[in-house]
Each structure stands twice: as C-alpha cells, then as structure tokens.
Design goal:
Layout (H helix, E strand, L loop, with lengths): L12 H13 L2 E7 L3 E8 L2 E12 L3 E3 L2 E3 L2 H23 L8 E6 L5 E3 L18 H11 L8 H10 L10 E3 L1 H10 L3 E3 H4 L5 E2 L4 E2 L1 H11 L6 H4 L2 E3 L10 H7 L10 E2 L3 E2 H8 L7 E6 L3 E6 L12 E4 L5 E7 L4 H16 L6 H12 L10 E3 L16 E3 L8 H25 L6 E5 L9 H9 L3 E4 L5 H19 L3 H9 L5 E4 L3 H27 L16
Helix pairs in contact: 3-4, 10-15, 11-12, 12-13, 13-14, 13-17, 14-17
C-alpha cells in the first residue's frame, strides 16, 4: 500500500514523456477536496485516471466560535490556492512541466452543514459545519414530519433550526448550499450539487434523482412562508457524468492567482466526501460498502432494497449516480488518536530524539499489535464533538481504566484505535439487524496507511473482510478527479459509473484484504460491550465538566 504522501516511484522514460504530454496538452483531470484537516489537490491523466500525475495539499483546522464549529471562508481560498500551487510545483518537479490548463475539474468537500447567502451572494452567518449538534429540535421535528431520519448534521436540519430560532438573517436568505457547492459556484457561476452531496441536504427521491417533491411540499407548509420556497433555496441536483459548468476566468484566478491557469475546464457536479470515498474505493454497486476514516468516520453501504424501518443511527443518502445508500456517520474519527501521536512526538523531541510525525504514528500503530485482544480493559472515548449515535450532545475525550486494567503502551494504542471504530460499530449493528448483506467492504483514510494494523482491527470490529486499495491513500481528491474524468468518458462510451470504475479505473488495481481474526472479533466485541456500558461516564462528563473554551466569534453578516 502506498502511503498517502509518499513520492511515486520514478517513472520510466516513456511514462514520464506521456505524463509530460498530458499535462502540457491539458489532457488531465484535477480533483480538489476540502477535508476536515487538509485541502488536497490531485491531478490525473484524464484518459487513465488511475495514473496520478501530481498532488498538493494545505493543512487547515476548524474553529470553535460561539459554541459552533466553523471555518473562515477566506481560508477556503488561501488554502485552495496553496494546495494548487503545491500541485503545480509537484508537476514541474516530477515531469518538467506545470499545468497551464486542465481538461476537467471537480470539487469535493465535507458534506452537510449550513452556508447561507443573500441575493448578492454574501454570506449571512459564519459557516456551520457538519460537526455541530445544536440542531436537535429541528432534526426531531423533521424526522417526524417527513418519515425519514433527518440527522443533526443535514443542511435542512440547520436551516430549520434557524427557522425555529427565528434568526435575524432569514429575511435576507436567498440560497443555501454545502462547502463543495459554494466553491463550485464561485468557480463556475452555477448553483448546483451532485446528487450524493444533495442527499445530505434534503431527502432524494430515487425514482427521479431529485429532491423528493412530496417531502419538499410538506416542509414548505411547515415553514409557512418564514423563508422562501425550499426549491428556490437549494442547489439544482445533477448526477455523476453530467456536465456542471466551465471554469470561468474569475474562477481560474481564484484557483491560480498567478494567472498561469487558463479558464475553460469542464466541471463535474460537486460532490461530498462520502461520494468521493465511494468512488475512491469502487464501492458504488449494491452489496458493496466502504469505510472512510478521518476527522469523522462513516460507513456507506449501497442498498439492494429500502430499509424496513427508520433508524436514528442510519441515514439514507445516495451514490454520486443516485443509488440509495445507508450511511452510518460518526462525528468523531481519528482526531484523538492523532492527539496522542502528537503527544508522543513531543516526548521524542523533548528527549533529544525528534521523530517525523508519520514515523511516530507508524510506530504507535504497530505497538497496538502487541496489546491484548480486548485492549487490556482500557476504554478510549474519542469524542471531541457531540456524537448522536452515542447520545452525546457534546464531546469529552476520555481514557478510562480500572485499577485492574493492564496499562501498557500496546493496550493504550489498541484502545485508541478501537475507539476510532467503536461508535461506528454500534451503528453497523443496526444495519446488520436490517439484514443488509455485503459482498465487500473497502476502507480508506490516513489511519490505514500503516499496513496491517487499522485494517486488521476494522475487520475484527465488523467481523467481515476489509480491503484497501493502493489508490485509497489518495482519498477523496483522487475520487473527485475520477468523477471529473468520467464526464467526458460517459459522453464517449455511455458507461454507467460502476462499469467505468471497474473496467477503466480499477482494472489493474490490487486490493489488500484483511480477513477477520477470531481473537480480534472476540476482543473487539468485549471492548465494545464495555464501551457501550461506559458511555454513561461520557454523558456524566458532559454534564459535570462544562466546556468553557468557546471563544467570542464574528458577528452575523461577516464572511467567515
């Protein structure tokens, strides 16, 4: 498996010449993804998207302002420009040529949340991300009204919470979108979304591939004229392969202020990170699924049939092609594990033996293999934010043990890795009870970069084989680049997305498969039983230890 930021092997001369020609001629597809901690750019050969030509990235972090998680929007553009500049420099270093044009382009970002704009396109309130859990009253009312589960993080829950709170910006409200939709609109002038990202805003009717008209009508009656009709606010819905506009001169300047990049690239529909994760793991057909682990962690399982019941732990979204998907989404993923890695990295530096962060992470993950099957009685709660599946309105990271627990580095790290997967496993139990069958589960995300550790533990947590492809390290930026290339490919050969991925993109990809080990299955099950019982400690901590770290933030109307 190729580490996420490892340099590619030196290409053969012919391959290098081919790459140079593709970049110089603009026969490329550029994917940009706004993740929770990094903005990534990935350039691929449009004729063979399995060939990554160059990459670039920029680190950023959310802020907790006025008890809401947000990102300043000016950082969207500075971060995007730095990521693209790094990609252009990487192309120059690898192939001796920097791009002056790209043939296709796509934007992906973390799903859900609330970006509200007025008639002039000015942001009305600071961006409210998927991580916020203040939308409980709205989500409950909408779930009852619509008859489908509306999670706290969905855009319609954020919008309706603003309606319930009679927020003063509502009279000026003229459009609502996601982060990917916002960036796409600035690059092209089009207010559109891919169906996968749109399905995290409002329920989609699988028969039409559009917002469910009956449910839209129910909501408009509930809103009672307090906001414009919902269809006027929400982006137009497009499917994978649909052209979604062209890069304008203004958009090109936003992406590359140096003026080197020319406008004119065809854009694919903007998508959410869940959709690009499905593409990056070739998991868009029924009976396939994937797990994406980053700041959040979620599992996507493509359904053969509708779910029999409404479950709070499951929400139904779609693939980028519009097929229904059961999603188990957890707000808290590997961030707390990264905090521990940072702590040990600082210890190494303080002891006079500084180590590269990736080396520290790799060492700690491998140490987890020495731990007991059940993590020695340790429990690690990675809740930095609220966690609806666990019944938590706020997060309190905790490490819990009894006097009899076996407190070793191996058990600590195994408990932390188990903690990444624990809340997800609670949701997957519900999916299993629905009788949903899986032929394969694929995983991607930075935690899987160390071969044979997180992948093995996830197989034990799910009691199912887990596969990782070498492309998984490129993640969603690569996935949206593939979707960008697919626009032209579908116009040429008419293949559906699943066929395109299997026959064109993943044809020669080798998957590493981890089968569940009986000792890991039993050990994780014991851990999860204790973890479930110990959630009472987490809930008590939320009550007993108020979070006093919320800072004074920008006032309404400022662009953040």
């Amino acid at each position: 498996m190729v580490p996420a930021d490892a340099a590619s092997p030196a290409p053969a001369a012919s391959a290098s010449a081919s790459a140079r020609d593709a970049i110089a001629a603009g026969r490329t597809a550029l994917g940009i993804e706004f993740g929770s901690t990094r903005i990534k750019a990935c350039l691929v050969d449009a004729d063979d998207p399995s060939v990554v030509l160059a990459v670039g990235s920029h680190e950023w972090e959310n802020s907790y302002v006025d008890r809401l998680w947000t990102y300043p929007l000016d950082e969207v553009w500075t971060g995007l420009q730095e990521a693209y500049a790094a990609l252009a420099a990487d192309a120059e270093a690898r192939h001796g040529v920097a791009p002056t044009a790209v043939g296709a382009l796509g934007v992906s970002a973390m799903m859900h949340g609330y970006l509200a704009f007025d008639e002039a396109g000015e942001l009305l309130v600071p961006f409210r991300t998927w991580r916020n859990t203040n939308t409980g009253p709205a989500a409950r009312e909408l779930t009852d009204l619509l008859g489908v589960n509306i999670p706290l993080r969905w855009s319609i829950a954020h919008l309706h919470q603003a309606v319930l709170d009679a927020e003063p910006h509502l009279p000026r409200l003229r459009s609502v979108t996601t982060l990917a939709g916002y960036v796409h609109r600035r690059l092209t002038g089009r207010h559109v979304l891919g169906v996968g990202d749109a399905s995290g805003m409002f329920p989609i009717d699988p028969a039409t591939g559009d917002y469910d008209a009956d449910l839209v009508g129910r909501y408009d009656r509930l809103a009672g004229g307090r906001i414009p009709p919902l269809r006027e606010l929400l982006p137009e819905v497009l499917s994978a392969g649909d052209p979604a506009g062209e890069l304008t001169a203004e958009g090109a300047a936003l992406l590359d202020p140096s003026g080197t990049l020319r406008p004119g690239a065809t854009l694919c529909p903007p998508e959410g990170d869940a959709g690009t994760g499905m593409v990056a793991t070739a998991s868009v057909a029924p009976r396939t699924g994937n797990v994406s682990a980053g700041t959040s962690i979620f599992a996507m399982v493509v359904l053969e049939r509708p779910l029999a019941e409404v479950h709070d732990e499951l929400d139904v979204v779609t693939t980028p092609a519009g097929d229904p998907v059961a999603m188990v989404h957890c707000n808290n993923g590997a961030s707390e594990l990264a905090e521990w890695a940072g702590l040990f990295g600082r210890f190494a530096a303080a002891s006079g033996r500084p180590a590269d962060p990736d080396a520290v992470f790799d060492t700690l993950l491998r140490e987890a293999l020495t731990g007991d099957d059940d993590a020695g009685g340790l429990l690690a709660y990675n809740h930095l934010a609220g966690e609806p599946i666990a019944g938590l309105t706020e997060g309190r990271p905790l490490l819990v043990r009894t006097p009899g627990s076996r407190f070793s580095l191996g058990n600590l790290m195994r408990a932390e890795v188990y903690g990444v997967f624990a809340t997800l496993a609670l949701g997957m139990r519900v999916l299993a009870a629905e009788g949903v069958a899986l032929d394969r589960m694929l995983a991607h995300g930075g935690v899987f970069r160390t071969a044979g550790v997180a992948q093995r533990f996830l197989a034990g947590a799910l009691d199912a084989p887990v596969s990782v492809a070498h492309t998984a390290s490129e993640g969603g930026a690569w996935g949206i680049a593939v979707l960008a290339a697919y626009v032209r490919a579908r116009a040429e050969d008419g293949h559906d997305l699943d066929t395109y991925l299997r026959e064109r993109v993943f044809r020669d990809v080798v998957f590493e498969i981890a089968e569940p080990r009986p000792e890991d299955v039993a050990g994780f099950a014991a851990y999860l039983d204790r973890y479930d019982a110990g959630l009472a400690v987490e809930r008590a901590a939320v009550t007993a230890l108020p979070d006093t770290t919320a800072s004074a933030g920008p006032t309404e109307g400022s662009e953040q």
